[in-house]
Amino acid sequence: MNSWSQPSLPSEPSAHPHQPNSPKDRLMLAVIQVQDVQKAIRALKKAGLSVTRLASSGGFLGQSNVTLLIGFTADQEKSAIEAIHKSCHQRVEYVSTPLEGAPMPIPLSTPITVGGATVFTLTIEHFEEV
């Protein structure tokens, strides 16, 4: 069993320089559109980050998306954010909305902005492989 615990993290990443095989102390969850998945995974791997892909679906418009789990050290956070920023883009899609006040239900195309990425970064306080 491999286990480590880190009750408090230093405020400066340079206080504890990370070795190449040191345990990951951050976890990023990036929710992105299906159209951007392959490009995002390639960019993250090129930055030297490992990625786990989870299928998910969004509450807004119920569209399919993907949640990427990315483990990294504090000094890799900037690289992870840059890789996601460069590979995930917002786009305009049109949805049908009813035209209010019309005698018959007439659908009206309404433009909405979707895409990009929603990113959460969490500090790992405890990690254990069983």
Keywords:
about 130 residues, alpha+beta, Alpha-Beta Plaits, 8 strands, about 15% helix, about 45% strand
What does this structure look like?
- The protein is α+β, with helices and mostly antiparallel strands and 130 residues long.
- It has 2 helices and 8 strands, in the order ββαββαββββ.
- The protein has helices spanning 37-46, 77-87; strands at residues 2-5, 26-33, 50-57, 64-72, 90-98, 107-115, 117-123, 126-129.
- The chain has a 4-stranded antiparallel β-sheet, with helices on one face. Strands 1-8 form a two-stranded antiparallel sheet.
- A hairpin with an 8-residue loop joins strand 5 and strand 6 (107-115).
- Helix 1 packs antiparallel against helix 2.
- The model is unreliable at 1-20 (pLDDT under 50).
Summarize the model shown.
This protein has helices spanning 37-46, 77-87; strands at residues 2-5, 26-33, 50-57, 64-72, 90-98, 107-115, 117-123, 126-129. With 130 residues, it is an alpha+beta fold. A hairpin with an 8-residue loop joins strand 5 (90-98) and strand 6 (107-115).
Question: Helices and strands in order, then pairings?
Answer:
Elements: E1 2-5, E2 26-33, H1 37-46, E3 50-57, E4 64-72, H2 77-87, E5 90-98, E6 107-115, E7 117-123, E8 126-129
Antiparallel strand pairs: 1-8, 2-4, 2-7, 3-4, 5-6
Helix pairs in contact: 1-2
